[in-house]
Amino acid sequence: MSTVRKVGVVGWGAIGRIVGTALADGQVDGAELVCVVDNRPLGDAAPAPQVPFEEALELCDLIVEAAGQGVVREWGERVLASGTDLLVASSGAMTDEELAKRLLAAGPGRVYFTGGAVGGLDLLQAARSLGPLDEVRLTTTKLPSTLEQPWMDEELLARMRTATGPVEVMAGTAREIPAKFPKSTNVAASVALAVGDLDTVRVRVVADPAAHHTRHVIEASGAHGAYRFEVAHLPDPGNPATSQVVPYAVLRGLAALAGRTGQIL
């Protein structure tokens, strides 16, 4: 009989609640929720003991990060150095190349990433083995209110708030964009992880008042082929910056790490 993975969930928000509740309900064969880490007192809201991060490292062999890029930066290496595996939902943290190098070199714990709100990343990762992708474009379209950031000037904010159609908010590389939209552009970093190059991935962020679905379009091409993936998700009602599907992508990743048979890898 295989060993049951002892899982700790960091962050009890839109993603962590669904992931943790599913684990507590026994919905992931081979994995159990043993603790929750959050910077707010959760009381009876959590279905497992709430503990400090240091204690979670002693209790768990797998940590699920569902609390934002700051947690990956502050704790990622310590999790891996303790021998605990880490499943990262906030892949935007990996646009910090120095952090990415340290995490990928750390151990003995292993680091994994979820594709989150998009598919096709497994195919892009396979295709890059044939040779570099010459051009990779990602266009992300969301409701204007979910894209507002403290650094925006009044002119841009006014353009977004009064838009009657799509408005380009920013364009740049996957190195630049996730730092500007830390809660809204993990997809850009995930595409870059799959492609293997932050600067190859060109990103457009679009605000659209009619974007009842969050839309991501990935277009990639190289000497060996061309690829196009388009997804449209309902935003999470509790956190519209996140698509509803993201926690279920995390759960799929957990099932694979727990050894569930029949998984597409």
TrEMBL record:
RNA-binding as UniProt keyword: no
Presence of keyword Oxidoreductase: yes
Enzyme class: oxidoreductase
Reactions that this protein is recorded to catalyse: L-aspartate + NAD(+) + H2O = oxaloacetate + NH4(+) + NADH + H(+); L-aspartate + NADP(+) + H2O = oxaloacetate + NH4(+) + NADPH + H(+)
Residue ranges occupied by any Aspartate dehydrogenase domain in the UniProt entry: 164-250
Positions bound to NAD(+): A117, N186
Pfam families membership: Asp_DH_C (PF01958), NAD_binding_3 (PF03447)
Domain Aspartate/homoserine dehydrogenase NAD-binding as annotated: residue spans: 11-106
Miscellaneous field: The iminoaspartate product is unstable in aqueous solution and can decompose to oxaloacetate and ammonia.
Function as written in the Swiss-Prot or TrEMBL entry: Specifically catalyzes the NAD or NADP-dependent dehydrogenation of L-aspartate to iminoaspartate.
Similarity-based family: Belongs to the L-aspartate dehydrogenase family.
Name this protein carries in UniProt: L-aspartate dehydrogenase
Species assigned in the record: Streptomyces flavochromogenes
Annotated gene: nadX
